[in-house]
Write a structure and sequence with these properties.
single chain, mainly alpha, 4 helices, globular
Length: 100
């Protein structure tokens, strides 16, 4: 069975987490989506690129989530989420997915 690339999982976690939180009006549910996707991506990062790279990509994932909030005040919520998700996906692909 083909694996979903970690870059897709990470970007999907950021976009999906925000979408779930917004549409259900329950931030906790969005947080669950964000956390589950982050954990799944981190597991793949560790398997494919090692612990140090997984730690750095996990930090980037968390920073993207945190950074999307102030960025949203400047460019809007969805553009912010898509922008940080794209940045994390690119980093994930460069560090872990392109090796697979």
């Amino acid at each position: 069975m083909a694996r979903v690339p970690s870059s897709v999982i990470a970007a999907g976690g950021l976009v999906g987490g925000y979408g779930v939180a917004r549409w259900t009006r329950k931030r906790e549910l969005g947080g669950v989506v964000l956390a589950v996707a982050g954990a799944a991506a981190a597991q793949q990062w560790r398997q494919r690129a090692g612990g140090t790279a997984a730690g750095a990509l996990t930090a980037a994932y968390v920073a993207a989530f945190a950074g999307s909030h102030p960025l949203a005040k400047k460019v809007g919520a969805w553009p912010s989420v898509f922008g940080v998700a794209g940045a994390v996906a690119l980093a994930s692909w460069a560090v872990a997915d392109r090796r697979a």
